[in-house]
């Protein structure tokens, strides 16, 4: 009976983030996740990925993966400009899909994909992995229980030396520090305030020679004296914490986008350590992709078409905000 309840994954792209995802799946206790196939535009890379991770099938290109009948759900971890085409292909073939952030490079493309998923009756989620960490459940409780009173400000500094990485600095690859890590600051504002911002004010933007933002600050005004202040940069390493200030105290999220420790005024810090894994991870706390995978499994088992923890509407709202911010700072893509 066990095999009937397994969730069979196909992996679209043999890269660093997909390797971390597969490694993270291996840490889920009593796991019902099985990776049955991997595909990449480079067949050799797919073969090496399959051998390293003991995956039974590997494909040269994504068409064969879309046609693999054993695959229940596909994790799409290609470079950003290719998300739209690969997700579209999988949805059209009736596959459930988890797509790495950002879902697309523009709002209209994202709307089209969610619409297609609904037409086909399949599950689709943008991998806003922050939302599925136990720390965010705890944050929701603290906010609901009025532990820090009325929240007035969320302040974030998020920076890594990324400005030379192709995926961040190259316009044709969908480069943008906003689209790479800035979206995590935006999702926290959305999570805490629960309403759309009434004003979006980017400032201090630095564009590189390819007219891609490598650093920027932004202020989002949510009305009634509530605001999000963020500095995101690919030029230096920062603390990478978020401080949520209310009328009765503060909550601090360490590594706020993949948070494993929450501390607050007049309370002990709480932490949720991540387990050891078979391989080392390429990125900060990506073992936490296990939480996102478990959410996908729960949703598919319940035959849900979206996750209540990160809905299609929330994803589209963030996409609309990034579209507007890119319009203001002059970062465009050839879609």
What can you see in these coordinates?
InterPro entries: Gfo/Idh/MocA-like_OxRdtase_N, Gfo/Idh/MocA_domain, GFO_IDH_MocA-like_dom, NAD(P)-bd_dom_sf. With 335 residues, the chain is an alpha/beta fold. Helix content is 35%, strand content 25%. The protein is built from 11 helices and 14 strands. It has helices at 2-5, 16-25, 43-53, 63-67, 83-92, 107-120, 134-144, 166-169, 177-193, 289-301, 312-329; strands at residues 7-12, 33-40, 57-60, 73-76, 96-100, 124-127, 151-159, 199-207, 213-221, 227-233, 242-246, 249-254, 261-264, 267-271. It has an 8-stranded mixed sheet with strand order 8-9-10-7-11-12-13-14, with helices on one face. Strands 3-2-1-4-5-6 form a 6-stranded parallel sheet, sandwiched between helices. A hairpin with a 6-residue loop joins strand 12 and strand 13. The model has no long low-confidence stretch (mean pLDDT 96).
